Amino acid sequence: MSAHATPSLRAARRRAGRAPVAIVIVGLILTVILALALLAPWIAPSDPTRQVLMMRLKPPGTLAASGQIYLLGTDDLGRDLLSRILFGARVSLLVATLSVLVSTLVGVTLGMMAAWFRGWIEAIIMRLVDIMLSIPAVLLAVLTVAVLGPGFFKLILVLGLTRWPRYTRVAFGQTLQIAALPYVKAAELVGAGTARILLRHILPNIAGPLLIIATAEFGLMILFEAGLSFLGLGIQPPAPSWGSIMSVGREYVERAWWIVAFPGGCLFLLVLSVNVLGDWLRDRLDPQTRIR
Amino acid sequence: MLRYVAHRLLQAIIAVFGVLTIVFIVMRFSGDPTLLLVPEGASQEAIDALRTELGFDRPVMVQYIDYLRSLSHFDFGVSVVQRIPAFDIVAARIPYTVLLAAGAIVIAVGVGIPVGIAMAVRRGRWLERSLAAVVLTGQSMPSFLSGILLILVFGVILGWLPTSGAGDLKALVLPSIALGALSMSTFARMARISIVDELGKDYVRAGRARGLSLAGVVRRHILRNAAIPIVTIAALEIGNLLAGAVIVETVFAWPGIGQLAIQSIQSRDFLVVQVIVLLISFVYVVTSLLADVAYALIDPRIRLAR
Amino acid sequence: MRRLTFVAAILACLITPAAAQTAKQMLTIDAPNDAATLDPHLQWDADSYGVYRNIFDNLLTRDATGKIVPQIATAWRFVDDTHVEFDIRPDVKFQDGTPLAAEDVVFSIKRITNPAFKSPQLSQFDQIADAQALGSAKVHLTMKTPYPVLLAQLVKLSIVPKAYVERVGDQEFNLKPLGSGPYKLREWQKGVQVTLDANASYWRGKPPFGTVIFRAVPDVSTRVADLKTGRADLIRLLPPDEAIALRSDARLAVLTVPTERVGYLFINAQAGPTTDVRVRRAIAHAIDKQALVEALLQGFGKPVNSIGAEPIFGYVPAIAGYDYDPAKARALIKDAGAEGATITFLTSPAYDRRVVEAIQQMINDVRLKAEIVVLDQATFLRRRQGMPADAGGLALGVWSCACQDADGTIFPLFRSGSTWSKYSNPTYDAAVDAARSTLDEAKRLAEYRKAYEILREDVPGLGLYQAFASYGARKELKWQPTPNESLFVMDMSWQ
Fold first, then answer.
1. Is there a contact between C320 and C349 (Cβ–Cβ < 8 Å)?
2. Which chains touch A (3 or more CB pairs under 8 A)?
3. For residue range C176-186, what is the model confidence (pLDDT) as tens digits?
């Protein structure tokens, strides 16, 4: 970086907003969560599905006769909560990541195409968006499960299916705006290919709001999975996910608060970190600071 | 302009039709309510007889054509579970959901947007960070959890508000918070981002150089330009609200159509589900049509680019 | 126009603040769902009959011990095996003042057995070939074949007013029911609540409360919160853990009763690894019923050795069950060469998830591999009552015929040809067929003994526990719940 930083670069650095310290902390949180999830089979103190009916609903720190200590307590079937949270992290992270990936890819591509090509392509895609958005997500989830049966990949399918239209609508609106800008018209006139224009000029400019949505969606997918578990349609038992643990724990929120508090706390940290990171990335990627 | 609207209306009708057909066919493939209606010990003959009486043994296409025919007389059918017209069942519950959605939007917009503006204008200070934390709690707690916590704290422990039901406006407070909290976060973050975007633009500096206060610039120029993404999000959030309403309505015993939808799907009360789907898709396409018109009005470039 | 009035009425209700509750005269009951229909000849689920059984009287009823006693019918005589005569009470009036006569009874029977009426309850009364009124106080029933469960089924038959129903039509009758029972309908806010007012001229005496409100509150935690804040006086469907917690609240009480509901494990004898009877017996040895009842049901249940319970006629408690012996189970599995075999365990949100998961672990501990598949109730029923290959290897069930008779329990569960049965044994079929074609109680008991012994040998299903029904209530409410889970407000009072 040149010692004579131009006013715009200084402005850019100022506009980057948050002090980097917060980003480091947040990055650390995310790395720890990811690491714990990956290492779960090795660091979990017990089998997350091993029930001990006599040790139901024990508070954190309980010492069993066998010498095992339940650091975070046990759930309503006497299973070690810490182990379930560790293994549940894998399921929740995987569900959230895959479904956000699926819906972003599908949604943004369709939105950009609709806004760029207009005409009948736009008509079909936006009608599809209307149809998908009109069917309540819960209905779609229940129907999918009723017809196809439950399962992990079907869950991803349902979550991805219900969310892609949101990206499309925003991508569509934003692309329309950007496409109308003079320099994009200029690129077209010069003969740049469609893909090149879409990827190099439009996508970075619309990335801001999309990133906001994607990071919000990430936490949302975990919450949705929790909601589906609440309705009895989520991850099949006895496999743990943060959503199903919380859905069970809500019945015991007065007597066994730890069943909800610990996965809830983890979820809060995860969503917080993803959102803060997303906001910061968005600020950094703001093309208005780069162009000048 | 008028041609644009008419064109969009036609597309909206096609969309509604598409939804209805898809839902109709998919539901027929998921079974029928006969087994849920008969007592446990009913014989195969009794089950088959009831199924025939209710008309579910006919081919799906025949049932579909029959349904379309009655739709053309605005006859939405009689529920096989409750034995009264499906339309009446849904109509009785709509006001509750409308009220709940309104309450949630008041919370989401009334709290979310000012918070977002505050976060944008006071960037980097501690106010932004604490607001961000508050906003984030709304986004990271499932509504079935926030629901029961609100009931426990404000209903059982403090006794300020009713624990369930839809009796009066007091009963609306807790469900609206539970439902609106999630959207509030999205509105706050979107408002913050849009305003931050605009703050960086030349015209803002020009305005301030001319002597306008920051508040004045925000009010006069920024809000208008930031409106587009906010309007899009608002249209989308209505869909989110309807989805989230199912759980909030169940937890708070709020008798809206969200709760009715899930109960009707589980009891395979097809006719009620179809009325609800028609209603929701109709509301959906109308709001998205209004959003598109709003776009075209706010940003002439979109209108003219056609 | 009617629709606008609906909407206006609801908006009005929302704006007017809730009326102050005169505590003693009003009883509020929280149930998981609103009544689906108030026409007693239509829907038959607990949420519906819990309400309409207070609006209507039935031909017969059960007393606190479970014995069948008169209600609208004061006496009955079996003329022969297929003809019964009932005497009808002369002093009963419907809530609009018109007297209840034999023709109303006959009308009720014909209405519910009319296929065009499409009553879901038809199969419970379809053994009745004909009904005739002999004068205004006698009814003569003709059965198709000797039907020993007739009286138990008539406990569920509500008497509706012929003149009123014919005048207003079926749909209107469903919305504005009129019966002869202790409470009449004041208002029905569909999906929200039903409000009933006391029928001052009720023939059995003055009803205990001036007003009864049944509120629909789907979520159990919310029902408990309502009870704690006094918004509800009585709540239905209280799970065991909640019940234990309620006991520590001095203002509240838990009312509980052993019911005729039996928790059982269905084991598919016609498909999958469970076709081998050794595997089925192994599964029987693998389940620790005592642990299930103590740890999960918290004592709100009683282990049983077969699919039956004390209130059920035909149940033979003397027949030994399978004791909890995982070692023996493992040996049997090894013998059958079924180690590691995958068994699908079907369930739905209607059944206690913890019991399902606990049983899964018990089965996995004897070296089988049980995989839980959670379906919604409609799909669950469709698979369970469909082809054997689709019905899963195991399923949890909690069965009640509301007739307190083995004919309604083990007949539909295991007789070949029934939709629930994935088991076929001609000797068994002969026994249960014989038991249902005679009115002689001693003969029936002997046949059921045979049937239960066959079930013990072949294990197409395993009795787990007799379910208890638990209700949460204010301490001041005096009420003994009944084994057939009827919810008669007439039997409740403040103490």
1. no
2. B, C
3. 999 999 999 99
The 10s digit of each residue's pLDDT in C218-252 is 888 899 999 999 999 999 999 999 999 999 899 99
What CA–CA distance (Å, rounded) separates C427 from C459?
A: 15
Task: List chain B residues with pLDDT less than 70.
Answer: 1, 123-125, 214, 217-229, 231-232, 235-236, 239, 298-306
- The radius of gyration of chain C from alpha carbons, rounded to an integer in Å, stands at 24
Range of lowest pLDDT (A6-20, A275-289, C236-250, C463-477): A6-20
Which residue in chain B has the smallest CA separation from A170?
B232
Asked if B295 contacts B302 with a C-beta cutoff of 8 angstroms, the reply is yes
Give the per-residue pLDDT at B302. 57
Report the complex ipTM: 0.81
Q: How many residues does chain A have?
A: 292
- Tens digit of each residue's pLDDT (9 = 90 or more) over A28-50: 999 999 999 999 999 999 899 99
Q: Which helix (H) or strand (E) holds B212?
A: none
* Mean pLDDT computed over every residue of chain C: 91
B179 chain-A contacts, CB cut-off 8 A: none
Look at residue C18 and tell me whether its pLDDT is greater than 50. no
The answer to whether the beta carbons of residues C455 and C428 sit under 8 Å apart is yes
- Which range (A173-177, C167-171, C401-405) has the least confidence? A173-177
Whether residues B253 and C411 touch (CB distance < 8 A) is answered with no
CA distances C246 to C137, C225, C240, C264, C470, Å, are 49, 11, 10, 27, 11
Put simply, the answer to whether B43 touches C123 (Cβ < 8 Å) is: yes
Rounded to a whole number, what is the distance in Å from the CA of B66 to chain A's nearest CA? 22
C-chain CB neighbours of A248 within 8 Å are 353
Q: Which residues of A touch C378 (CB under 8 A)?
A: 146
Position B226 scores a pLDDT of 67
Beta pairing partners, C405:
C313
CA separation for the pair B248, B97 (Å, rounded): 11
Share of chain B above pLDDT 90, in %: 11
CA distance C184 to C100: 16
- Kindly provide the residue ranges of all beta strands, DSSP E only, lying in A62-215, ordered along the sequence: 62-63, 69-70
- The nearest CA of chain C is from the CA of A147 a distance in Å of 8
Distance CA A211, CA B55 (A): 50
Q: Which residues of C touch B44 (CB under 8 A)?
A: 417-419
**For the residues of C137-176, what is the DSSP string, one character each?**
SEEEEEESS--TTHHHHHTTPBP--HHHHHHH-HHHHHHS
| Residue C221: closest C-alpha in chain A | A251
The Cα–Cα gap between C122 and A148 comes to 32
Nearest CB to B190 within list A212, A260, A283 = A212
pTM: 0.85
pLDDT at C17 over 50: no
CA quadruple B53, B54, B59, B64: dihedral, nearest 10: 140
Task: Show Cβ contacts of residue A262 under 8 Å, excluding neighbours closer than 6 positions.
Answer: A72, A81, A82, A85
Region at A290 (left for phi over 0; alpha for psi -120 to 50; beta for the rest):
alpha
